[in-house]
Amino acid sequence: MTGILVLAGTPIGDISDAPPRLAAELAGADVVAAEDTRRLRRLTQALGVQTSGRVVSYFEGNEAARTPELVEALVGGARVLLVTDAGMPSVSDPGYRLVAAAVEKDIKVTAVPGPSAVLTALALSGLPVDRFCFEGFLPRKAGERLSRLREVAEERRTLVYFEAPHRLDDTLAAMAEVLGAQRRAAVCRELTKTYEEIKRGPLGELAAWAAEGVRGEITVVVEGAPDKSGEELDATELVRRVQVREEAGERRKEAIAAVAAEAGIPKRDVFDAVVAAKNAARTTP
Fold it and tell me: In 3-state terms, what secondary structure has residue 261?
């Protein structure tokens, strides 16, 4: 009889936010796989529980190698509990490989739901939350970061990102450049902790604020692109949209067709605008 894999959400700041089931799962699991065993020890001490099962580390550096070992334990009937430093395992944290491997073996996977930085930031942002997409961490390299942002330049859903404090100013500046300096956003810092702060405003203003230095765990929420389906777009905007798609990796022919469909106009009109802009660039001294 196979075991069960339990993904357990852990507090993102305030320890009293720990779900009631977490203590019971920590005490009863046959194996506890933790992103950081030292933080696990502090968590169990704060909750007043003692683990009776085997404790192993499971982090980015050993995730690939340790997954088969945990799957073997699950196949053998063990109850394996997976916890990360904060929030839900596998969401920008270790866990996806183990879940995928367990599913492939037809092993039951369940969860102890807990605090989420993504949902907490969304709720506090003051931005639309009816539709959103989580983009995780942006690439560290400037060129790759700009390219990734261009991919979502026309995304109408609210966007959610994680970011390191020392890269926040560069990220917000890149967002202002690609998405527009007036696009609304919220920087959510140290959620549920003593120095929690929600800084709201246009991306341009937030980038200037972050340039002074920011500390703590950061979640950034960005307003989606405005709905332009009902407006008439001028040639400059048509060309800009084609360029955004090309920079994201689309071929020009495909980009022109997509922009024409968005604007509800013939492809020829978009093609002519692109050619005219190209010719104008050639003749500009």
Answer: helix
pTM above 0.85, yes or no: no
CA triple 85-87-89, angle to 5 deg:
80
Which pLDDT score, from 0 to 100, does residue 280 have?
84
Residue 163's DSSP bridge partners are 218
Where are the alpha helices (H) located in 195-285, listed in sequence order? Answer: 203-210, 235-247, 252-263, 267-283
The angle subtended at Cα 103 by Cα 102 and Cα 108, nearest 5°, is 75
Q: What is the pLDDT of residues 91-133, one digit of tens each?
A: 888 999 999 999 999 999 999 999 999 999 999 999 999 999 9
Answer yes or no: are the C-beta atoms of 142 and 173 closer than 8 Å: no
Strand order in the sheet with 4-8: 54-57, 31-34, 79-83, 4-8, 108-112
